[in-house]
TrEMBL record:
It comes from the Eukaryota. This is F-box domain-containing protein.
Length: 441
């Protein structure tokens, strides 16, 4: 892909080149599944003709997907042979089943690409599970020894810190030996602003890293806070102890936070006799004074698990924001776990907790009957995937669950079309048949 070998065919298309370039530009998706397919399509587009080559190459190298060590080595060699491509690369995704094996390419990633990606902004590290069939398999697994956790070089954090322009990090389906390894990976990126962790585990929690300890005594506080530029933190199915540590360390700078409820307790991480894993913890938002948006993904176990609603109440009750407008988003985790009525019923007890917390946090009016203009205004958004024909149904149920909020001023319902099966409701078959009959009539 470093050299253009396509030949311009004037009869290939009657469309202006600009139209074709706009079509090529559409081959980019935020979804990782689609991004893999987009990469394959861009390879083909780059070979169509010379007129398509440059635009396809720019898009192909904008977001690079690597799946093993040979692919990483080949990519590094391409950049050496065609240095102009280095400026094209803004996103790198390492996706494969071998990340938890002796042939894991992760430790070599920052070494192989050292100094070659001056505009890199995003890094994705995603271990494909054995039960996932959306990504192709390879015989390489047969020669690789499987490991319980991610094998990292002792100096990985030092090498990783060379990515001085990376502002977004996504970690999916990874297990670290120690929480400290996880924390050092995050803290090594000096410009990190967004962190998303999905199903990230630690074999051993261990003591709190030094630069994550509270600044109770200035003389013992670290010179540089943990992840000093991190503003957006999204945590899906991460153990409650890890969530509590990350929120506590990053809270004073966070503007956006996402958590799943009920909180995930990693039974395999609990070590008998270790108070750091056996003691119950809550997520304390008292340090998140600058938080502007809180996303809460609600799982079906929220009501059936006894302490979950109390934990939700305690988390929201600890929050004392100092921003003028604050958005709280409620979303299902995920739609395929619910029928529509199931999720509507779940919003009832959640609504009572939110109204109780928000009423208690509202400042009383002043002597002249007016509320201080500097008080925080709360806005609640119920966001879900569904067809537009269901929007009025959802609005009626949401209004019943949150009677203290006014539509549309401080209560909104957002419906987006489901693109994947995990965003489709359990009762979607009935709704699909209803839609078909409506369209027939």
């Amino acid at each position: 892909m470093g050299e253009g070998r396509g030949h311009l065919n004037h009869n290939a298309s009657r469309f202006p080149v600009e139209v074709c370039e706009n079509i090529v530009d559409m081959l980019y998706s935020f979804s990782l599944i689609d991004r893999v397919e987009d990469s394959r399509a861009l390879h083909r587009c780059a070979l169509v003709c010379r007129a398509w080559h440059v635009r396809s190459q720019r898009n192909l190298f904008y977001s690079v997907v690597l799946h093993d060590l040979p692919a990483l080595q080949k990519f590094s060699a391409v950049l050496d042979n065609a240095p102009h491509l280095c400026d094209y690369v803004h996103e790198v995704a390492l996706i494969w089943r071998t990340l938890h094996t002796t042939t894991s390419p992760l430790s070599l990633l920052p070494i192989a690409l050292y100094g070659k990606l001056p505009k890199l902004q995003e890094v994705i590290i995603n271990r494909i599970r054995e039960d996932e069939d959306w990504y192709p398999r390879s015989s390489e697994l047969e020669s690789a020894k499987s490991l319980q956790y991610l094998p990292l070089h002792p100096r990985f954090a030092l090498y990783f810190s060379a990515f001085t322009t990376v502002s977004r990090l996504y970690i999916v389906n990874l297990t670290f030996l120690h929480f400290n390894d996880f924390a050092r990976m995050i803290n090594s990126l000096p410009e990190l602003q967004e962190l998303e962790c999905n199903t990230v585990r630690c074999v051993t929690l261990g003591p709190l890293p030094f630069n994550m300890k509270p600044r109770a005594d200035g003389s013992h506080a670290p010179a540089t806070p943990f992840a000093p530029k991190l503003q957006k933190l999204r945590l899906y199915r991460v153990d409650i102890h890890c969530v509590q540590r990350l929120v506590s360390a990053c809270g004073p700078r966070l503007r956006g936070l996402l958590v799943t409820m009920p909180f995930f307790y990693d039974a395999e991480m609990v070590v008998p006799g270790d108070p750091t894993t056996e003691s119950p913890v809550d997520v304390d938002l008292s340090v998140c004074s600058t938080l502007e948006r809180l996303d809460i993904f609600l799982g079906p176990e929220l009501v059936t698990e006894g302490q979950s609603l109390d934990q939700l109440k305690a988390m929201l009750g600890s929050w004392e924001p100092e921003v003028p407008l604050l958005d709280v988003y409620l979303q299902p985790y995920h739609e395929h776990n619910f029928t529509r009525q199931d999720f509507a019923d779940l919003l009832g007890p959640v609504g009572r907790i939110l109204e109780h917390v928000f009423d208690d946090s509202s400042a009383p009016p002043s002597a002249d009957g007016e509320v201080d203009e500097e008080d925080t205004e709360w806005r609640l958004v119920v966001s879900l995937h569904d067809g537009e024909v269901w929007l009025d149904w959802w609005r009626r149920h949401v209004i019943d669950c949150f009677p203290g909020f006014a539509m549309p001023h401080d209560l909104r319902v957002i419906c987006r079309l489901p693109l994947y099966d995990q965003f489709k409701w359990k009762d979607r078959l009935d709704s699909d048949s209803d839609s078909d009959s409506d369209s027939d009539s």
